[in-house]
Specification:
InterPro entries: Metallo-B-lactamas, NDM-1-like, RibonucZ/Hydroxyglut_hydro, ST1585_MBL-fold
Largest sheet: 7 strands, mixed
CATH architecture: 4-Layer Sandwich
Mean pLDDT: 94
Low-confidence stretches: none
Protein name: Glyoxylase-like metal-dependent hydrolase (Beta-lactamase superfamily II)
GO molecular function: hydrolase activity
CATH superfamily: Ribonuclease Z/Hydroxyacylglutathione hydrolase-like
Strand content: 15-25%
Number of helices: 11
CATH class: Alpha Beta
Number of domains: 1
CATH topology: Metallo-beta-lactamase, Chain A
Shape: globular
Structural class: alpha/beta
Helix content: 25-40%
Organism: Thermocatellispora tengchongensis
Distance between the termini: 55 Å
Strand order of the largest sheet: 1-2-3-4-5-6-7
Keywords: Hydrolase
Length: 309
């Protein structure tokens, strides 16, 4: 299948084809003794993921574990569907996200407020997963991949209060979710993901520092793909956060409303990203979908309002 890439170490990147786009959302299959899927993609992507796993020899009763870095719909929207397709799989998530996978009604209601009519096209609906099949992680946890290989979970809020990073003991791969931002492999651009309501600058920077301290060999971005230049990439992640926060602070202190703040920040950050040059319109569209300036600036504004003395 043309949406599967072997990354070595029995790790396979699966393009989940969110809303029909390619190169936006990745799921990863660790094909060990106890096969594990990291990130499901959206609900509408679930059949794509199921077929990819089947082509790699993982049938309905073969998948041992499904792990999500956090419960946003582009990462975990397919959990209920994948759990139904693979009835033997345990579903692993941070404890702050577990109840939303069992009962997605509140999560879907808030997503509807944010995305409106786009919700169905982009994400579909998160189906509930039986509570008995969900394992809630604390600040650290371990997923057994078989043969002594493990996936260790490390709590990394900042992007979202239910976010974890995951490191593979065999490969040194670190699944960064959205905590290190959104990476576009076509252009090498990296941009922060700071949506409301959970964004917090210090927490986000602490998460990036934790990732560096784990000593990963490679970063596997949910958006999108593997990066081997670990230190420089994590330094860039932190720098991007500071740039967006500094600019949004300026707009905030000048009393700008959200629309004007977004326009100002978008204009002042434009030259940082090759994807926003005129010859890469599809890349620009991907950035706006995954790390849109309105969402990023709104998240930082929300944090600034909360942080006021």
């Amino acid at each position: 299948m043309d949406n599967i890439t072997a990354l070595g170490g029995d790790v396979y990147e699966i393009d989940t084809r969110m809303a029909g786009y390619s190169g936006i959302t990745a799921g990863y299959l660790i094909l060990g003794d106890r096969p594990c899927l990291v990130e499901t993609g959206t609900s509408t992507s679930a059949p794509v993921v199921r077929d990819a796993l089947a082509s790699l020899g993982v049938g309905p009763d073969d998948l041992a574990t499904v792990v999500v870095t956090h419960i946003h719909l582009d990462h975990a929207g397919g959990v209920g569907d994948i759990a139904r397709y693979f009835p033997s799989a345990e579903v692993v998530v941070h404890e702050k996200g577990a109840r939303h996978l069992a009962d997605p009604s509140r999560l879907m209601a808030s997503a509807k407020m944010v995305w409106g009519d786009q919700l169905d096209t982009l994400f579909g609906a998160l189906s509930p997963t039986e509570a008995a099949r969900i394992r809630a992680l604390g600040d650290t946890g371990v997923v057994d991949l078989g043969n002594g290989r493990t996936l260790s979970s490390h709590y990394s809020p900042g992007h979202a209060k239910h976010h974890v990073g995951l490191i593979d003991s065999a490969t040194g791969d670190l699944y960064v979710g959205d905590a290190a931002g959104v990476y576009l492999p076509q252009t090498g651009d990296l941009r922060p993901a700071t949506p409301p309501p959970d964004f917090d600058l210090q927490t986000a920077l602490d998460s990036i520092a934790l990732f560096e301290a784990l000593g990963p060999q490679r970063l596997l971005f949910s958006h999108y793909g593997p990066v081997t230049d670990v230190r420089a990439t994590l330094e860039r992640s932190a720098e991007e956060l500071r740039v967006w926060v500094d600019l949004t602070k300026q707009a905030h202190s000048q009393g700008m409303d959200l629309d004007h703040a977004v326009a100002m920040v978008r204009e002042r950050t434009r030259e940082r990203y090759a994807a926003l040059s005129s010859d890469a319109p599809d890349a620009a569209e991907r950035f706006e979908l995954l790390s849109g300036a309105p969402s990023n600036v709104a998240g930082i504004m929300h944090w600034l309002d909360r942080a006021k003395p």
